[in-house]
Amino acid sequence: MSDKQGKKSHGSRNPFRDGGGSKNGPNKLDAGECAIYKAEAKEIIKRFLQSGNMHITLDVMSREQRKVMHEVAQHNGLSTRSTGKEPNRCIILSYRENRLTRSSLVTTQPIIPSPECLSHLNEFVKANPITEDDMNRFFDQKNAKEFQPKTGSSRNKTGIPPVSACPKDLKKIRDKLPASKYKTKVLKSIDDNEVVIISGGTGCGKTTQVPQFILDDANVRKNVRTSVHFRRPKTLTTERSPKFARKSAPNRSKLDAFNVIKHPHTTESSMKKIEDHNTLVFIVDEKANKYHIKSAVQSLYNVKAVKVNTLITPLQQKKAFVRLASDYDALDVANKIGFI
């Protein structure tokens, strides 16, 4: 047995050879053979740990023998890997690599400081003692951070930019400008009025200094929101004077008298209704009701109807039976309309 680094391992005899001399041995192991192979595997691992090698390649083994070797090596904290093809498949035995893994707070161990570190900490605490006021201030700041609302409006809220450091030379030049004399008056006018118009000669500082006045004043009063930009207010509202109407003609009624009554019904049964029951029969619009039909008859033929009945024919047409008052003769009205 030898590793790939050229170092020979203890013993060249394969401990997993069976009695017949076969390298792969039997396919299945009974309890007695399994115990023997486990003992021999432990002996191989013991010799490997004493050798000081990082890994070794063992001799050819059968599948059952490799299974026993994998189990014993894993139990001892070693890493095994099979290589080669049957029937010349063997095992590479090596130490397990220590890799950095993410651990949870449950499995982590506390850090124990050394005596030297503890002595330095004691000296620092003695030199800078922690008072009760310091602890109260710390807890107040911590509670304020925890209960601070984190809304989208507070995050996106535009703040007032801080005042930039102004050199002394530049400050002297700013103080000499004519606009600096009217700083208090300009700020008071802005506070009292919604719109302020500032006029002055070229180079007086109305364009550069007035925004600076507002910024300085806003930093003094941070709760006041101001703007250095002027936006023209929309104060003019004119009355509407359209040149033409939006609709040139009113909507036409879809159920007027001419649309309600389509045409008279002139079958033999309808003629019999006229003679026997003083009733006229019409084909009307499907959406028309009895009130519409009665009003249409009164409007078109100047005839008063006493009763109106309707039905839907098999041809999906709406038929109206208009019974006239006793003052009117249905036969005469039918002649005037053009029934007959």
What gross morphology would you assign? flat
State the CATH class of the domain at 1-96.
Alpha Beta
Overall average pLDDT: 79
Q: Kindly state the percentage of residues in helix.
A: 25-40%
Roughly what fraction of the amino acids lie in strands? 5-15%
According to CATH, the homologous superfamily of the domain at 1-96 is: R3H-like domain
Structural Rg: 54 Å
Number of helices: 12
Here the CATH topology of the domain at 1-96 equals Ribosomal Protein S8, Chain: A, domain 1
Uncertain runs are 1-13, 15-26
Gap between N and C termini: 128 Å
Number of strands: 7
Strand order of the largest sheet: 4-5-7-6
Can you walk me through this structure?
With 340 residues, the chain is of the alpha+beta class. Among the domains are: 1-96, Ribosomal Protein S8, Chain: A, domain 1 (2-Layer Sandwich), CATH 3.30.1370; 168-220, no CATH class; 257-337, RRM (RNA recognition motif) domain (Alpha-Beta Plaits, 2-Layer Sandwich). The chain is 39% helix and 12% strand. It has twelve helices and seven strands. The protein has helices at 31-51, 63-75, 115-127, 132-146, 152-156, 168-176, 183-192, 209-220, 257-260, 268-277, 290-301, 330-337; strands at 55-57, 78-83, 90-95, 261-264, 279-284, 305-312, 318-324. A four-stranded antiparallel beta sheet has the order 4-5-7-6. It has a three-stranded antiparallel beta sheet with strand order 1-3-2, with helices on one face. Helix 1 packs across helix 2 (63-75). It is flat and about 135 Å long.
